[in-house]
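quick one, 406 residues, struct below
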Amino acid sequence: MRAKVYVFLLTVAVLCGAFWWVNKNYDISEFPPKARAEAKDAAKKDEKKEDEPTPVEVETAVTGAIASRIRSTANLRALRDVTLQSQTQGVVTDIAVEEGDAVQAGQLLCRLDDRELKINLELARQRLEQTKVQLESAKILQDKNKTQIEAKKAEVDRNEKALAEGLVSDTDVALLRNQLAELKHDERAQAAAVEENEYRVRELESEIERNEVLVANTRITAPFAGRITERTVQLGQTVGASDNLFRLATFSPLFADIFLSEQDSRRVRPGQQVEVRLDSGETETVIGKIARVSPVVDDATGTVKVTAELRTADTGYRPGAFVRVAIETDVRNETVLIPKRAIVEQDGESFVFVSDGETAKRRSVELGYEDGDAVEVRSGVSAGEKVIVAGQGNLKDGGKTRLVTS
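---
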C-alpha cells in the first residue's frame, strides 16, 4: 500500500509539472479545439486530485520506558588463553585430547616416554639407601670412638695420679697418652665420614626430587579448566623443553575491550548493563556488565578502554568473535514514545505530522533518547495522539489525509 501511495504521488507531480510547462511555453488557444478541450479536462482533473486527501498511515504515541545506550564494536577475548609447552625432552607416546575438547584442571593432555627417567629415579633411590647404610655405620663407629676416648681419658687420669705417687713409670703414662691421641684422631676421621655421608644423602635426595619432577613433567596436564583451541604436537614426535604443545582457553567469562571517546566514557561505570550480540545476528543478545573502566586516556587515540564481561554457555560466542556492544547508561520511565520513521528532518528542525483522521497538523518536536525503532519525544506530542508514519513526505500543515492500513 505504501508503494502505491508513493507511485500515486509521483504521478500527480509529473502531471502538474507537465501542465505548468505547457501553459508557460504554449498558448492553449493556438491548439485545435479537441486539444484545447483535452488540456482543460486534464487541468480540471489535476485540480481535483490536489483536493483529494493524501493516504497516510498512523501510529499512536505511547507512554513507556526508553534507555540511552552507547554502541560500539569489539572482539571477544578469553579470561585465560595460554600456550602449553613441554618442560622436558622426550618422545610423545600418547595424546589424550583434540582441538575443541573441554578439559578440567589437572586432566591429562598428552604423555612423553618416561622409561629412562624412571630408571634414573630408581638408581638414585638405591644409591640413597646405600649411602644411608654407610652413614649409619659411620655414626656407629663415631659413637664407639667417643666411648673409647672417654674410657682412655679416665685411664690416663688414673695413671697420672699413680705416676705422682711413684706407682707407675713415665713410659706407661706416655703410652696411654699416645693411645688417647690415636683414638681422638680416629674420632675426627669418623666425624668427617659421617658429615660426608650426610652431605651425600642430601645430594641424592635432591637428585631424586629432580628426577621425580622430570617424570611428572612427562605428563602434560591442563593447568585450569577450559577448551583446547589448538594442538601442535603429534604422536611419536620428539619434543624438547619449551616446545609448544597445546593452546588452552577459557570460554566463560569472555571479555570485550571497547574503546570510547573521553566524553562517552564519563557516562560509563562498572556494573552497568551491557548487551552483546554477534555481528552475524544469528544468536540472541547476551546480557553482560561493565567490569572496569581505564583511569587514563590513550594519548595516541584519545579513547578510554572499557572492559565488558559476559558469561554465556552459547558456543557461538567464542574468543576472537566480532560483536556489537550496547552499554545502557540511563533509563527514563513514563515518557512519550513514537516510531522513529515518523520524524521528518528539514533545515535542522525535527517535526512530525499529527492526524485527527481528516487533516494533518505539523508539530515541532524536541527529541530525547533513541532505542531501536523508538524515539523519545520530550515536547510537541502527547501520549495517545496519532502521528503519521507513512505518506508525510508531501504533506503540508492542515493538509487533508485519508487513513489507510498497511
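Residues 145 and 185 are 9 Å apart (CA to CA).
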